[in-house]
Specification:
alpha+beta, NADH Oxidase, four-stranded antiparallel sheet, 7 helices, binds flavin mononucleotide
C-alpha cells in the first residue's frame, strides 16, 4: 500500500473469518485510530465495547437471530466491536433538535471507519453490522439507558477473498456548485 487511497480501496466487507484470535495490540491500535476521530464539539462520547470469546457467541445468538439472521455470518468472527454513544449530552439532545443533525450518528460513523481502516492496514478483515437487535445488545452488555448503539463492527483474520463491489461514478455522487 503506497498511499491512503490504496488503503481505502483495499478495505472490503469480510463475512468469513479464521478462528484465530486477534492480538490485543492490534485491537488497541484500531481503538487508537478511532480515538483520534473528530467529533461534534470534541465530545468523544463513544464507548467501544470489545466483545470476544463466549460472550461474543452469546452476542451473536441474542442479536443476530430471527429477522436478523442474514448476519449469522458473524458466528465465525472472533471479535465484535460494539459502538455505543452517550446521548445524555446537550450537543446531542438540544443541538441535534435545533439543527436536525444526528451528531452521535455522524461521530460514530467517522470513528468506526477510522477503526476499520486501521484494521485493514494491519491485514485484518472487518464488516460493519447495522442490522441487529439493538435492545438485546444493550441488555446483554449492560449498556445504560441514555446510550445508543448505532452499529457494531466484526473484526478478525479474513478467510475469504473479498468481493470488489461496484461503486457509482464520481460524476453521479458529486455536484460542484458555485455562484459564478
Ligand atoms: C452503516 C452500515 C451498516 C451495515 N450493515 C451491514 C450488516 O448488517 N450486515 C452486513 O453483512 N453488511 C453490512 N454492511 C456492509 C455493507 O453491506 C457493505 O459495506 C457494502 O455492501 C459495500 O461493500 P464493501 O464494504 O465490501 O465495499 C453495512 C455497512 C454500513 C456502512
Amino acid at each position: 500500500m503506497k498511499n491512503f487511497l490504496d488503503l481505502v480501496k483495499k478495505r472490503h466487507s469480510i463475512r468469513k473469518y479464521k478462528p484465530d484470535p486477534v492480538p490485543r495490540e492490534m485491537i488497541e491500535k484500531c481503538l487508537e485510530a478511532a480515538r483520534h476521530a473528530p467529533t461534534a464539539c470534541n465530545k468523544q462520547s463513544w464507548k467501544f465495547h470489545i466483545v470476544e470469546g463466549e460472550l461474543k457467541n452469546r452476542l451473536v445468538e441474542v442479536s443476530l437471530g430471527g429477522v436478523f439472521v442474514p448476519n449469522k455470518w458473524a458466528s465465525t468472527v472472533p471479535v465484535i466491536a460494539v459502538i455505543a454513544m452517550n446521548l445524555d449530552l446537550i450537543i446531542h439532545r438540544v443541538g441535534g433538535k435545533v439543527s436536525g443533525v444526528d451528531y452521535h450518528m455522524v461521530d460514530a460513523g467517522i470513528a468506526g471507519e477510522h477503526f476499520v481502516l486501521q484494521a485493514t492496514e494491519l491485514g485484518l478483515g472487518t464488516c460493519w453490522i447495522g442490522w441487529f437487535n439493538k435492545k438485546a445488545v444493550k441488555k446483554l452488555l449492560d449498556i445504560p439507558a441514555g446510550w445508543d448503539v448505532p452499529a457494531m463492527i466484526g473484526l478478525g483474520f479474513p478467510d475469504e477473498e473479498p468481493i470488489d463491489k461496484n461503486r457509482r461514478h464520481i460524476s453521479e455522487i458529486s455536484d460542484f456548485k458555485a455562484d459564478d
